[in-house]
Inverse folding.
């Protein structure tokens, strides 16, 4: 089995284990940052079941939404159809380790683009920045710590926004750093647990 097949099998298994994996609601940190932006063309990397893509379409964006999982994309397309946003969203099955959606974008969103598999995350994010139109925004939100209900949190490493920025290797004449820090938000675990999650937030504008 090739690495690409292993990656696809992992994420298909992830989405097929339940009828719906995510809540269907937009990530509130993403919405807070994206709402003031002037709508244009957006790219949603690892779009999953499509909540963020639908939110963007509802707010006037033309959206390209990419994921490796056909199951996730089918659910995302269904969500778009149910909300009347399908005409504003193009869905693409893409393995980001092998390729990248074409075009220039005013916003590229990478929400929790983290994987337990071998994944060239820094390379993908460098491509994401390169795909920005001048003045465009790269918005990266990561898990910055394990959830309080995790049984394996002590075994996991999480990049800080500063780590991510350093990995991109961008110069000051290429990028304006508009935000780099962490936020906390309430969330519920798979067994109904309640607690606070910590997210790392990085907002970069291409000069």
């Amino acid at each position: 089995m090739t690495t690409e097949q292993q990656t696809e099998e992992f994420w298909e298994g992830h989405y097929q284990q339940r009828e719906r994996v995510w809540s269907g609601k937009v990530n509130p940190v993403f919405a807070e940052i994206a709402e003031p932006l002037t709508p244009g063309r957006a790219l949603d990397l690892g779009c999953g079941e499509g909540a963020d893509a639908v939110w963007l379409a509802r707010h006037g964006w033309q959206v390209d939404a990419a994921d490796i999982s056909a199951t996730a994309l089918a659910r995302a397309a269904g969500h778009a159809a149910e909300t009347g946003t399908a005409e504003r969203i193009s869905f693409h099955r893409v393995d980001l380790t092998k390729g990248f959606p074409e075009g220039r974008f005013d916003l590229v969103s990478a929400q929790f683009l983290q994987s337990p598999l071998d994944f060239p995350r820094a390379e993908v994010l460098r491509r994401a920045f390169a795909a920005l139109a001048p003045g465009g925004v790269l918005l990266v939100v990561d898990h910055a710590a394990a959830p309080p209900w995790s049984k394996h949190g002590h075994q996991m490493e999480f990049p800080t926004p500063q780590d991510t920025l350093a990995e991109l290797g961008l110069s000051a004449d290429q990028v304006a750093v508009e935000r780099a820090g962490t936020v906390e938000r309430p969330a519920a675990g798979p067994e109904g647990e309640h607690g606070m999650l910590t997210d790392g937030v990085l907002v970069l504008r291409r000069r």
Observations:
- Residues 3-16 form the longest helix (14 residues).
- The domain at 27-48+100-206 is CATH 3.40.50.150 (Rossmann fold).
